[in-house]
UniProtKB/TrEMBL annotation:
GO terms of molecular function: carboxy-lyase activity; pyridoxal phosphate binding
Name of the encoding gene: Gadl1
Name assigned to this protein: GADL1 decarboxylase
Keywords, comma-separated and alphabetical: Decarboxylase, Lyase, Pyridoxal phosphate
Biological source species: Ceuthmochares aereus
One Pfam match: Pyridoxal_deC
Names of the cofactor(s): pyridoxal 5'-phosphate
Record text on subunit structure and interactions: Homodimer.
SUPFAM superfamilies: PLP-dependent transferases (SSF53383)
Entry keyword Lyase: yes
Amino acid sequence: VGVCKQEMLQKKNAILVDGVILNGPIMDSKAGEKFVEEACKIIMEEIIQKADDVTEKVCEWQAPEALKQILDLEMKDTGESNQKLLQLCRDVIQYSVKTSHPRFFNQLYAGIDYYSLVARFITEALNPSVYTYEVSPVFLLVEEAVIKKMIEFIGWEEGDGIFNPGGSVSNMYAMNLARYKFCPDIKEKGLSGLPRLVLFTSEECHYSMKKAASFLGIGTENVCFIKTDERGKMIPEELEIQVQRARKEGSAPFLVCATAGTTVLGAFDPLDKIADICEKYGLWLHVDASWGGSALISRKHCRLLHGIHRQVQLPLPFSVYKFCRADSVAWNPHKMLLAGIQCCALLVKDSSGLLKKCYSAKAAYLFQQDKFYDVSYDTGDKSIQCSRRPDAFKFWLMWKALGTTGLEERVNRALALARYLVDEIKKREGFQLLLEPEYANVCFWYIPPSLRKMEDGPEFWQKLHQVAPIIKERMMKKGSMMLGYQPHQGKVNFFRQVVISPQVSREDMDFLLDEIELLAKDL
């Protein structure tokens, strides 16, 4: 750097201000381009080409303190060489979890979609922010087109929407929007003078509902968790009882959040009966379909979301159930459809501009009304964010590549593989299902040989509770696969296997069961 500065000073007309040379760029573009080229080669060789290789490890486990030393995390006063940086890139890849691996079953996302990946490369290189048409013309039009198509599958004749950084944020948006609809003055006057607002959701709901209530000042004590049945579905009769109770106590019910695809059990709330109650009492109905919304793409499985639909004939070959009675829906294409994290939409039935009215701040330096183009395309004021990523683009490019039929095939195959796994579990000694799944969540216990003749009682369940964590530790340290476990609603630790990735095969389902038996043979 010192040599370059000296050379710059020796040039004619060199300008120096506050000790800073202003002539020419200070970045070496050729060296930067070479670094990008070499890094992309590493990405191709170490991630993309190995994405479906089952002989590779899912993870290279290291304890936190050891990993800190390997990665050399400290930022220094002087920069490091490109070769050192490229080695760091290799290290980061080596010690990261390979979520595209066919045997990564740990979360509600997995696999790799190559079209979505290219879309992410493009947006990372362009570095856009989606708020005004002047700075993001292509991506605003793409988002508009994707939202319109998603609304078609939901079944509204028209609507509105926006892509958000996560389903948790979409749920928070919906909660705030429902409150604004109930009491528009809150935007300017705040919480003072409002009655006690109460919302209702299932005891199996995503934890983001509780966080949203806290964040928005509603209060977690004003979230009424409705009892669920043995399958994890909200009980509508219990909902109505709690709505009536809240009204008698002088509270103001304003929102019901139903869930289409719960996180652990994959349960779908009875949306038809819940919608009836919402209509009866004038409550906003939000459906958190972050996980289960992609079933709408499948003609075979869209029935999972029946109840707030009507049957609508679409042009052949599609005739799908339509999602009509909800006021808002959260839907995450980055889960079942593999659009890549993060890709999350909040869709709203209202088309009168409610979303913008609720969230707009009318920043004069961004949203000038005297621009030379149609300012209705400056949609950023519908968001609580200023800078916002073009997350719809990766879903759009993937949808363009696969078509609706290709997306439908992904959903159908994932659920068929889940059904295959269930059938295999039933055949094998030592494996026990919690319940018959209705989606891609397969929940089961593995009972090692030493416990199989033990009487059912507190000691048995206490010992079984320890099995899943030990197996999980062993699979992580071996790197053979990743599978989640948890206790839930009084049940001891059990495995939750989730099928998503189109790279997963029937052989991977067999391997999963074989590997559990192998890892637990001495327990």
